[in-house]
Amino acid sequence: MSRREPLIFEISGEGKRGFLLPPLDVPENKEILKTIRVRNEIAGFPEVTEPEVVRHFTRLSQTNFCVDTSFYPLGSCTMKYSPKINEKIASFPYFLNCHPLAPEDLVQGNLEIIKLLEDYLCRITGMSSFTLWPAAGAHGELTGMMIIRAALTARGNPRKVVLIPDSAHGTNPSSAHICGYQVREIKSNEEGTVDLQDLEKMMTDEVAALMLTNPNTLGIFEKDIHRIAEIVHQRGGLVYMDGANMNALLGKFRPGDHGVDVIHLNLHKTFSTPHGGGGPGAGPVGVTKELEPFLPIPVIRKEGDKYILENDRPLSIGRIRTFFGNFLVLVKALAYILSLGGEGLKEVAEIAVLNANYIRKSLEGIYHLKYSSPTLHECVFSDKWQREKGVQNVDIAKRLIDYGLHPPTMSFPLIVPGALMIEPTETESKDELDAFIDAMKKIAREAEENPEVLKEAPHRAYVRRLDEVAAARNPVLRWKGKE
Ligand SMILES: *Cc1c(COP(=O)(O)O)cnc(C)c1O
């Protein structure tokens, strides 16, 4: 992109029109116009021709980096390629044109799709039931925590505290807090997993639940999950698993078989809805048999050969989303699961893990690894060695843009100072991974030989290094007029 794209207001010129109607060949009826409240003029509204509008927005769309154009290794985000066939299926007119308030009798097929997906998610995770209504991962966390609160309240005491490891995803503490719990942090050991001694010390009768991101944000599998669940259950608490990164575990590990009471998944990561850009997602929540009465309404049940919506459930946490959640996301997830099948899903996990470890081994010794345990779907390097030359993770990230690659997640998790968190996902070929590894190696060499070039990167992007602090503190959100 060689030139700055002007604002549409800057392209505007008085009298320019996108479309001209032929002159009236009937008498003008001013009375009708009055009844529909026509606005003569909108102050400052841009006046532009049709080609100007089309070109302006097409050019803007091309400044957007996306997974359909390039490798996107954003850690903990699973920016994988989602097969287009599933978009196509979700856009069948029967799905698109269905009214959200259509009576049950007319949407039996849609209810069957929801029920079928629920059953598959139970089989994949080993949970007893799922609710598919939450609209995002964090929404699933909140729903799950509300279920835990309701269940403990029914037992007599909702308790006060939720334990969260320092390697958890950032949304976990906020979900627990919004649900009215105090958050206490559990330390990681040198391997990057939950420190069992610390957990034993912290797990008191005040603790409602442990929220465990697994694999955690270091990409490491919590292999002591049995012991962890035992410690929590012995003291009457419940185990919540953040399963947003289930692409690393499909067909390999069923959380419900290993002491997990509540889990959420991110369909818009693992199950074929592209992630990011504020589009719709879904964060289904799975629970054990014991917690089923607390699931949000409606619950879909089959009676004879008819699906019915059950709303009369006295222990339910209530409704958490309008209509049927983000239904089209559910359709895509089911299409994805059915098209891959059990063996295909297993292969997803195998390749996701293989790809992350290929990157980890290839860059080991070039970038510092605070935790050297083998990882699952992602790996976390740091800028420790480059920092000695005055180069920070942000400089490395920005330089990747010059090589046509999206930067990894930066400065997270907090337990790795100067973190670069890389998740290649299962959809990338070896060529793609090699190109990324190559660019990272070149950047490490530049940090030694020519650190200045990194500090000014990106050089080949549409915009250069932005002043992010000024952008956050002093955002310009309104056009102030032509200079
Ligand atoms: C992405 C993610 C979330 C949050 O999901 P949203 O849909 O963005 O709310 C939670 N936990 C983990 C581990 C994640 O990777």
Describe the structure.
This protein has 483 residues and is of the alpha/beta class. It folds into 3 domains: 8-61, no CATH class; 84-339, Type I PLP-dependent aspartate aminotransferase-like (Major domain) (Aspartate Aminotransferase, domain 2), CATH 3.40.640; 344-471, Aspartate Aminotransferase, domain 1 (Alpha-Beta Complex). Helix content is 38%, strand content 11%. It has helices spanning 8-11, 30-35, 50-62, 84-90, 93-96, 108-125, 137-155, 171-178, 196-202, 225-234, 267-270, 327-363, 384-387, 393-402, 430-449, 451-455, 468-473, and strands spanning 129-131, 161-165, 182-186, 207-213, 238-243, 262-265, 285-287, 299-303, 306-310, 379-382, 409-410, 419-422. A 7-stranded mixed β-sheet has the order 1-7-6-5-4-2-3, with helices on both faces. The protein has a 3-stranded antiparallel β-sheet with strand order 10-12-11, with helices on one face. Helix 4 (84-90) packs antiparallel against helix 12 (327-363), helix 6 (108-125) runs parallel beside helix 12 and helix 7 crosses helix 8. The longest helix is centred in the last third of the chain and has 37 residues, at 327-363. It is globular, with a radius of gyration of 26 Å. The model has no long low-confidence stretch (mean pLDDT 94). The protein binds pyridoxal-5'-phosphate. Pyridoxal-5'-phosphate is lined by residues 76, 136-138, 169, 171, 213, 242, 244-245, 266, 281, 283.
